[in-house]
Each structure stands twice: as C-alpha cells, then as structure tokens.
Write a structure and sequence with these properties.
- The protein is an alpha/beta fold and 246 residues long.
- It is built from 7 helices and 12 strands.
- Strand 8 and strand 9 form a beta hairpin.
- It starts with 11 loop residues before the first strand and ends with a helix.
Length: 246
C-alpha cells in the first residue's frame, strides 16, 4: 500500500496507516486508521462544523491514495459532546460505541447539548448537532474486530466503565501497537471525573488498556500528546489514590 501524506492535512503520523489530529478548543484527539478501500475515524469532534472539517481533511488525505476510499467506520470512545457531536457530518458510515452508549444518546440529548453550550459551543450549533445525533449502530460489549482491508485490522474493546459508564478503546496492531484511549487517559490536563464517571472502576480500565497495548505501545489520550505505558501506569496510580481504590 502507498504511504499517506499526513502533513498534507496537518495531522500527526503515528504509523504509515494511522494518524491523529488535536482539535482546537479542548485539545481533543480524533484518530484515523486507513485500510484498503475503508477507513476508521476515532471520535468526531464537538459540532457538525468540526465534523465537516474532519470529513474534508480525510477526503483530502485519502483521495490521492484511492478516489473511492473514504471514512466507512466511526468508533466513539465515550458519550461526551467534544467527541461525538460531529458524527452526523459523515453520511452512510457504520458507527460503533460501547454497549449502553445508545441509551445515553437517546435519553440525554438535552444534556449533551447543554454541556456543549456550557463549554462554549454556540447554542445553535449545539442544538443542531444534538437534534441529529447519530446513535451507534453497533454496540460493543466485549471486543469487536474490524477488517479494513489491505491487512489492516482494528480491535474495538469495551474497557470501561471508568471515565464514563461506556468507554471504548481502539487498538491498532503493529509495530508499535497503537491504542486510542479516549478520556480514560489525558495528558494535557488532569483526568476529568464528571457525574457520569465510575471512579471505583477507572484503575481497572487502565489495567485493561495496558494489557491490550503492552509495554511498547503508543497510547493516544483523549486530550494531549501521545504517551507510553509508564505514563498510563502513573496516571493509574494517581487515580487509585485520588479515589481510594486499589
């Protein structure tokens, strides 16, 4: 397979077929895994406008590789506005999330909208995105392997609860292994524990991430620079002490 020019869209290359971008505003990560004729996007940003910008960037990146290749799959790491409200910008895409995320989306669209507005998303943009919020078509209760073609496979793993009740990790095998952690891991600030966090289970979720990736993996936080296993272990210890769990 030909190489991708990640610099062409201002993205960070993690491997030949895996990259990510740190979105403005909340330094939120969106990842992309490219196969042959298919591609997986990890999280979609905080609004339809941000989702549309991601769609344009991925098209610009993928078209020189193959005019027919586009984002065909989306994995949502957890149900927070800055990671999910751009999904509707991608028509005809198969969307995956941890089991139970569908219930959150159906019952709490107003909560997502209000959270987005409270963090600075214009009210009209937040309302529009919440109104057409895409409920994941596929709910992952354990592990789910996606074959993107060209020898590129991705493992979706329900590793939570922790940061929320519905945390999904994305593992891309290779050398190195790459693990998209969602907000189970944060580098550019302290991990945030809101009302939907499950603090007593969070350290165990990080143990699961470390089992999936191993010692030499690249761990991609939901916010901030990529980290290593040592960083994840240190954050686990901090959270365990913070919440009084082992």
């Amino acid at each position: 397979m030909d190489d991708l020019d990640w610099n062409a869209v201002g993205w960070e290359e993690l491997s030949a077929r895996v990259g990510r971008v740190r979105l403005p505003g909340w330094d939120c990560t969106t990842g992309l895994v490219v196969g042959e004729g298919a591609a997986l996007l990890v999280d979609t940003g905080s609004s339809l406008r941000e989702g549309a910008a991601l769609r344009a960037a991925t098209r610009h990146l993928l078209t020189p590789l193959d005019p027919h290749t586009r984002v065909t799959h989306i994995a949502l790491t957890h149900p927070h506005f800055d990671h999910v409200l751009g999904t509707a910008a991608f028509a005809g895409v198969e969307v995956y999330g941890a089991a139970g995320i569908d219930t959150v989306f159906r019952r709490d669209r107003d909560g997502l909208r209000a959270d987005a507005v409270a963090h600075g998303v214009p009210p009209g943009e937040a309302a529009e995105a919440a109104d057409i919020l895409v409920v994941p078509h596929h709910r992952v209760s354990g592990e789910w392997t996606l074959d993107l073609g060209g020898g590129v496979q991705v493992l979706l793993a329900n590793v939570g609860p922790g940061h929320t009740g519905h945390d999904l990790a994305v593992l891309v095998p290779g050398a190195p292994e790459i693990v998209f952690c969602g907000d189970l891991v944060e580098e550019s600030g302290e991990p945030q524990a809101g009302s939907d966090a499950v603090p007593g289970r969070w350290p165990a979720a990080l143990d699961r991430l470390l089992e999936l990736g191993g010692e030499d993996a690249v761990y991609v936080p939901g916010h901030g620079a990529v980290v290593n296993a040592e960083f994840v272990r240190a954050q686990r210890a901090t959270l365990a002490a913070r919440f009084g769990v082992s």
